[in-house]
Write a structure and sequence with these properties.
heterodimer, A: 288 residues, mainly alpha, 77% helix, 1% strand, globular, B: 278 residues
Chain lengths: 288, 278
């Protein structure tokens, strides 16, 4: 009994704050997703599955946000992981100033996403315009934020630019943990550079890869801030991700019940993807 | 491959990497370059060097953003948030590592579950709850909300590390009549310092740069804004006065950059520790 009391003393603050700021809001969100509520009035009305029904049958904005989020996430996850791994391999190949390069690539990561959005808005609007004048190249003359398709490309590019350094650091740490004698043995056995990379290095850094995949997927599925300041979700709703759509529904259109239903859908999607990933990578990790 | 060729490869990669890094950081260079120009110079040619060097834009932005106050607000939020996460996270994480019963295991699972829940899926009702507790429009209140969001990850790291501390240490301290709170504060907590460093670094950077939560719970009130919130409002107001926007961006980046340059080693260690455990 004494022990239980002591345990409770240590654990209580953590449990309480998690309950108040995560569990209760989350459960209330599920509850509200079955109701009609404008967020201001006390009266809310139970409307069953109507919110969910509307989501998938009568809300082009949400469906578009869903599609954009998946497209964005797939592109960012693939590009960021491949680029980071490639750079990490280059940086591991015994060159001078490794620490400097690593630190330099990490700099965009310490800048808040809102500020990154504004810097790139400036680049896309003013600098590209200047480059177009200078080089007369139609590439720069395109409207990188104004055209719905190009705006998608821009958001993906800027996200990769911003996040790259983080994944680079994780991959470098992973590569450093690959034992030299194993690489040496493979070399003596006649394995070439590529063979060594795919057959020795890659399986050994699986933990780093699975972490980076996990983290980048979760991050891109809930991307909000960068897009909020870079494109504002536009032009139109071309670059509106689910998170921004939830925000707009709840806080701009005061539709808390409907927004809650969208939140629950986001949660279910993120959860499903996480479970799939855990199962996928669990079976592929090996010990050195 | 001859020996000579093999020696040349690293320097080729070095030059290549140098080129990539310069290109990579060029946008930030453009930001710095244009923050010291005036409006006409930016309109004429963004790539050109400024006619004469001036810090006028910084003075304008410093005053317009009410920089000292917003800086102070952000500092308070970050301090309160990080301190609470470290204190409550370490207490709970340590106890959950020590007590090996079913209820301890279940509480642990309950506490780390939020790591799976995306913030956006409960933010709507979080605002409602925060309002009920009078934590909206309230700088320390914002810091307190971060406790609930940050503790799960911290607790997870602390629990993992505390498991590796030998129990004999505590036993002998308790035998010599050390009280439980003292045992934790003077013996256990100092032993957890490597985790504490990671937790502080990761959470402080996150809270300092976070935008969405301040937007939701502080919103429009001018004298309670954090740096990121002020950045968004003022950059929106300036619209095409890019010289001011770039100067504001630099003023907002500098504090984080200074911290990064000082604690660079810890930050990288913290990230890797979090990743390997996580």
């Amino acid at each position: 009994m004494q022990e239980l009391k002591e345990f409770a003393c240590y654990v209580f603050p953590a449990v309480m704050f998690i309950t108040v700021f995560v569990s209760i809001p989350f459960l209330m969100c599920i509850y509200n997703s079955f109701r009609k509520w404008n967020g201001i009035s006390k009266a809310t009305k139970f409307i069953g599955l109507k919110n969910y029904h509307k989501l998938f049958t009568n809300d082009p904005t949400f469906l578009h946000a869903l599609g954009f989020t998946f497209l964005y996430a797939v592109c960012v996850v693939v590009i960021i992981n491949v680029t980071a791994l490639l750079l990490a391999v280059l940086l591991e190949s015994n060159i001078k100033g490794r620490g400097f390069f690593r630190a330099a690539f990490y700099i965009p990561n310490i800048i808040s996403l809102v500020v990154i959005g504004f810097i790139w808005k400036f680049i896309c609007i003013r600098v590209f315009e200047q480059l177009a004048v200078l080089t007369n190249n139609p590439f720069w003359q395109q409207s990188w934020l104004g055209d719905p398709r190009l705006a998608v490309v821009t958001t993906i590019f800027v996200s990769v630019w911003q996040g790259l350094g983080f994944y680079l650091i994780i991959y470098i740490a992973g590569l450093q943990s690959v034992p030299d004698d194993l690489m040496e043995a493979a070399r003596i056995d006649g394995a070439g550079t590529f063979r060594r990379f795919f057959s020795v290095t890659l399986p050994l850094i699986m933990p780093s890869i699975s972490f980076c995949m996990f983290y980048s997927v979760a991050n891109s599925m809930k991307m909000f801030e960068l897009i909020f300041s870079l494109t504002g979700g536009g032009p139109g709703d071309a670059t509106t991700p689910i998170a921004l759509d939830i925000y707009n529904t709840a806080f701009n259109n005061n539709n808390f019940g409907y927004g809650s239903a969208k939140s629950v859908v986001l949660f279910v999607i993120v959860c499903a993807i996480s479970v799939i990933q855990v199962n996928f990578f669990k079976s592929r990790e090996i010990e050195a | 491959m001859t020996l000579k060729q093999e020696k040349q490869i690293p320097s080729v990669i070095f030059v290549l990497m140098l080129f990539i890094v310069v290109l990579y950081l060029l946008p930030l260079g453009m930001m710095i370059l244009n923050s010291v120009k005036n409006y006409d110079e930016i309109m004429k040619n963004v790539l050109a060097l400024p006619g004469h060097f001036s810090l006028k834009n910084f003075a304008v932005v410093f005053q317009d953003m009410n920089y000292p106050l917003t800086f102070f607000n952000t500092f308070v939020v970050t301090l309160i948030g990080t301190a609470g996460i470290v204190i409550f996270g370490s207490m709970a994480g340590y106890k959950m590592a020590r007590v090996k019963t079913r209820y301890s295991r279940l509480t642990f699972l309950y506490c780390i579950m939020p790591m799976m829940v995306p913030f956006q899926s409960f933010m709507i009702t979080l605002v409602v709850i925060a309002k009920a507790f009078h934590l909206t429009n309230n700088v320390p209140g914002l810091g307190i909300i971060y406790w609930g969001l940050g503790i799960p990850m911290a607790l997870f790291l602390y629990q993992g590390f505390a498991k590796t501390i030998p129990y004999e240490l505590e036993e002998s301290a308790l035998m010599e009549g050390c009280s439980q709170p003292r045992l934790f504060m003077q013996i256990i907590f100092p032993l957890l310092k490597s985790v504490t460093a990671s937790v502080i670094v990761v959470n402080a950077m996150w809270i300092w740069n976070d935008f969405l939560l301040p937007l939701l719970v502080i919103g429009g009130s001018r004298e309670k804004k954090t740096l990121q919130l002020a950045a968004y409002t003022f950059m929106g107001q300036y619209k095409s006065e890019w010289q001011n926007i770039m100067a504001a961006a630099i003023l907002i980046i500098i504090p984080a950059l200074v911290i990064y340059l000082i604690f660079q080693k810890n930050i990288i260690k913290g990230l890797v520790a979090g990743a390997v455990k996580g």
